[in-house]
Every structure is written in structure tokens, then in C-alpha cells.
Amino acid sequence: MEGYIYILLAGKEFLNTRELLFGSYIMKMGLGNLFLTLLFTSLLAIISVWYLTKNLRELVHATRRFQQGDLEYRIKDAERSDLASVTTTFNEMADTILEDMNKLQSIESLRRELIANISHDLRTPLAVIQGYIETLQMKGNKLTKEQRDNYLNTIENGSKRLAKLITQLFEYSKLEANQIEPKREPFLISELANDIYSNNLILAKNKNIHLDLNMDENLPLVFADISLVERAIQNLMDNALKFTPSKGIVTISVLKKDENVEINIKDSGYGIKTENQTLIFERYRQTKSGKKNEGAGLGLAIVRKIVELHNSSIRVHSIPNDGATFTFTLPIHGLNRTIQIT
After folding, report:
1. Distance CA 35, CA 264 (A)
2. Cβ-Cβ contacts under 8 Å for 237 (sequence gap 6 or more)
3. Known EC number(s) (predicted)?
4. Computed from CA positions of residues 60, 66, 68, 73, in that sequence, does the dihedral angle turn out positive or negative?
5. pLDDT band at 236, cuts 50/70/90?
6. 22-80, pLDDT tens digit by residue?
């Protein structure tokens, strides 16, 4: 028998069906890949945004903490962040603001303390002046000339004391608030010492105190503020003359010590106890030994501030009943070295 076998490998309907199925498969694959791509891209975008804004969020958080009163909060490792310039600027700004606030609080505290001390320190001389003026008004012509002169002298002394207290209070307040900048210039410390010695001779003579001046020859120029140095030495002189008894000795010594010039003010007064020697430079600190005052109120506090403005320090050496010696140094002109007490 003979015949033919026909095999249809791909008919038209088959091809259409195959194309339809293949297209559907491709579409599903494309949609799946598209979904996966979108999902991956979204996750990547979220992670990227989170990472890129991490430092910004930290900066916002630090700003809010600072705004809420946490003045000590700072951004950690600010110099390593992606926004290093911004974060380090924030930390520096916060430090500056905190420093300025502390200064303002210090000035405000100083202002309140100054007002309190003024009212306290001025009350006594004002009361004395007022009392003697009222006595003069009440008794009038009943007072003898000697009594009247005595009252007037007391009033004058009280006025001078008031003027001195006011000057010291405002001078110290300016020094404490860093409102005084030393105007350094070269000058002869020997001439300044001679002037102070001459100006105090009459006062020392009236108190029956021997005043001595001891200086090295050919002392070099010092580089400092002459008016502030004069004020410091004069305060030490006032303190020495005040606490030196009759027939005592006060000595001014100006000596060259290496790269500095050393100034010493020595007295033969009552001396200062060892435990009180670190306290006498504090403002309004007055230590006592028996009936003798060892402190000098604001005078020594002003001296310490002036000496510190010249990058130096002041020290005291004293033995009770054997006087006291106050020492500080000034730099020699032309030598750029840190001043150290010897």
C-alpha cells in the first residue's frame, strides 16, 4: 500500500498560540523585573537619603538640644562627618555662645556683688560724716574752735576714705571684667621707683617709719604699662605703711633677675600667718590676727590683677611678727620670654 503522511510542525494556529503564550510570558517577566527594579531602587533611594541626611538630622537634633537648654551638647566627631564644615562651625558657635553667656553671667554677678559691697563699704564712712555734720549743726557756736577743727578733720578724712573706696571698687570692677588693656611700653623702672619713694617719704616720716630704697645699678628698661605698674607698687606701699608700726622699716628693692626685673616691697610689720597668705589677694578678704588686720581689702586684689595682666604672678613671704615681703617681676624690654616669678 502506498500513501502519504502529513505532519504539521507549525501551523498558523500553533504559531499564533505560541506567540501569544511567549508574549504573555515576556510581559510577566518584564513586569516582575520592573517591580523588582522599582522595589530595589526605592530601597536604595531610602537608604541613600537616610545615609546622606544622617549628619543633617544630627545637626538638627543638636540645634534642638541646644535650644532646649542643653548648652553642653556637641556633635561628636564633627570633623569626620560629611558636613564637617557645618558641624564644626556649629560646635564652635555653641562654644562661643556658652563662653559669652558665662562672661555675661560673670559680669552680672560682679555687678550685683559690686553694688552689695559698695553699700556695705560706704555705709561706715557715710555714717561717720553724717554724724559729725549733724553734731556741727546741732551744737553750732557751742563748740570750741579746736572741737570744730577736729570735727571738720574727721569729716575730711571720711570723705577721702569714701573717694578711695569708690576708686578702688570701680578700678577692680574694670580689671575683673577685663575692660582694661595694658598699654605696654619700655620705661626705666628705676625712675618710677625713685618717684614712688619720694612721694611716700613724708607719709613715712609722719608715721615715724624709715623708708629705704635699694636698686641695682644700670637697671635695664622694662616692657610694661607704667601707670598700672605704678598703681600696683603704690598699693603695696600703702599696705606696707599701713601695717608697719612706729619705728619700723619699709624697703623698696628693684633687682635684675635673669631676663626679668624683680620688685620687692618689704615691711617690718606684724606679718601674715601661713594659712592666710593665699587669701589676702582675694577681693574683700581681710584676715585678722588678734587686733591687727593682715589684709588690705581691695588693694592687694588689684595688685594681683595688674600683675596677671603682665603675664606674671605675685607672691608673699611672711613670718608672723617678722614682717612681710611682696614680690613680682616685669619683663626686660627686648626679651620675648614668659615671665616667671623667681
Report:
1. 90
2. 196, 200, 250, 252, 265
3. 2.7.13.3
4. positive
5. very high
6. 677 677 777 777 788 888 888 888 877 776 667 777 777 778 877 777 777 777 776 66
Question: What would the pLDDT profile of 80-139 be if each residue is shown by its tens digit?
Answer: 666 677 778 877 888 888 888 888 887 777 667 766 766 766 777 788 888 888 888 888
- Where in the chain do CATH 1.10.287.130 domains reside? 44-73+80-179
State how far the alpha carbon of 232 is from the alpha carbons of 12, 171, 235, 284, 326, in Å. 118, 12, 5, 17, 11
Rounded CA separation 133/154 (Å) = 10
In this prediction the pTM is 0.58
According to CATH, what is the number of the domain 44-73+80-179? 1.10.287.130
Residues of each domain in the chain carrying CATH 3.30.565.10: 185-331
Within 8 A by CB and 6+ apart from 146, the residues are none
